[in-house]
UniProtKB/TrEMBL annotation:
It comes from the Bacteria. The keyword Iron-sulfur does not apply. The chain crosses the membrane at residues 33-54, 61-84, 90-112, 169-187, 207-231. It comes from Streptomyces varsoviensis. Keywords: Membrane, Transmembrane, Transmembrane helix. The lineage of its organism: Bacteria, Bacillati, Actinomycetota, Actinomycetes, Kitasatosporales. This is Integral membrane regulator. InterPro entries: Pr6Pr-like.
Length: 254
């Protein structure tokens, strides 16, 4: 039979020697955090599935919206597992990238694509969206971005983003440009959705105009990445304390 007094004495001695608590007591499981992240992944996946079910799958998969939500689904599923299994969190480079991409999706949709004064609005469709389309749109452009931001603010440790991450995160959005242009060049003129977004439409702006639009958006995305990095460093830590070893003079484990 294990003597709890002697066990506590050994733990106290280890703590007094300066050994981190995580080396003695594993980080606690966080089932509520895991459940919330599972819901985020479910929202993203549901929106993607609905869009694919009611639309042309290759065209649907070409949108940055779908791809960013897919990234969120994979990252949040992995993060949910780690929270459930009391594993260390994912790298901030990975979670920050997912946060930036889904933030871009939400901000561009609400302030550019649905804003008639932006010059790039996609609100001129003659057909009213179906209920399924509306559901998918809200999941992909509103619910998932807001949920990811809340997860970052409320359920993660601040100060993990580094300034160097800002330009590293931009690699994927910048690679999306040649993908969209090559795809458009391979499709016949007049094909619906030949270019996924108005600011990438070569037929309207020409390659020079598209390049100019890309530079403007890239700079805006870089500023957004830097803002997220700054906010991550100054925001308060809203999570409760993890399991730790108390000082021997204070009392038992807590």
């Amino acid at each position: 039979m294990i003597d709890p007094t002697s066990s506590h004495a050994r733990l106290s001695a280890i703590s007094a020697a300066g050994v981190p608590a995580s080396a003695v007591v594993p980080a606690g499981r966080r089932p509520l955090t895991a459940a919330f992240r599972l819901l985020i992944a479910l929202a993203a996946i549901t929106g993607i599935v609905i869009d694919c079910a009611i639309g042309d799958v290759p065209r649907v998969l070409s949108y940055f919206t779908i791809q960013s939500n897919a990234v969120v689904a994979v990252v949040t599923l992995a993060a949910a597992y780690r929270a459930w299994a009391a594993r260390p969190p994912l790298s901030a480079r990975i979670t920050g990238a997912a946060l930036l991409y889904i933030a871009i999706t939400g901000l561009v949709y609400h302030f550019v694509l649905t804003n008639s004064s932006s010059g790039f609005a996609m609100t001129g469709d003659a057909h009213a969206p179906s209920e399924w389309q509306t559901t998918a749109t809200q999941l992909l452009h509103t619910a998932t971005p807001i949920a990811v931001v809340l997860d970052w603010l409320l359920l993660t440790t601040p100060g993990r983003f580094r300034p160097a991450y800002a330009w590293q995160w931009l690699i994927y959005p910048l690679l999306y440009l040649p993908f969209a242009l090559i795809r458009g060049a391979l499709l016949s003129p007049g094909t619906e959705g030949r270019y996924p977004y108005p600011f990438l439409d070569v037929d309207i702006h020409g390659y020079g105009g598209v390049l100019g639009n890309t530079v403007i958006f890239a700079l805006a995305f870089y500023v957004l990445a830097l803002v997220l990095t700054l906010l991550d460093r100054i925001r308060p830590h809203l999570r409760g304390p993890e399991n730790r070893i108390s000082s021997p003079a204070i009392g038992p484990l807590k």
